[in-house]
Amino acid sequence: MSSSSLSETLHQLTHAYKKQLRETIKAHRIALPVTHIRALKGICRNPECTAQSIAQRMQRDKAQITRVVNELLQAQLIIKIDNPNDRRSQLLRPTPEGEKIMAQINTIEQQTAEHMTRQLQSDDLTTFIRIANTMSDSVNRS
Q1: Whose CA, among 46, 63, 66, 106, lies 20 to 30 Å from 52?
Q2: Residues 6 or more apart from 41 whose CB is under 8 A from it?
Q3: Neighbouring C-beta atoms of residue 130, cutoff 10 Å
Q4: 40 and 93 in a common domain
């Protein structure tokens, strides 16, 4: 397989996955942009989460993440608490409503993955995950 067809295949796969997620999120009437969902996911998964750590993880500008965090605060999906390890920052935590939305998103992601892989054998899926992780790791090490 040439690298251009690999690139095209990866591009198509990424867009198919994102399209399926967007459509299902919209069908569930979750009115959050993707950036907000990614930030909320990071907040729910990391008890030591700060706006700075989200900006680093998402590779986004701190000002953009500050805007996203403020909008999540305004929507009452997260709260800020004092960081006992660093008084200059605040930890971000999900509210019960934020956790509820995140549970819905987790279910949607699982359903999307199951839908996209329903024609794959278990061994094929295991191989795909191993290869995809190897490719991601090679990018992250660069």
Answers
A1: 106
A2: 102, 105
A3: 10
A4: yes
Q: Which helix (H) or strand (E) holds 78?
A: strand 78-82
Residue 86 lies inside a defined structural domain of this protein: yes
> Phi, psi (5° rounding) for residue 18?
-65, -40
Domain count, the chain: 2
pLDDT category at 139 given cuts 50, 70, 90 is confident
Q: Does residue 21 form part of some domain?
A: yes
Token reading at 3 = 């690298």
> CA–CA separation, 37 vs 106, rounded Å?
11
Q: pLDDT, tens digit, for every residue of 104-116?
A: 999 999 999 999 9
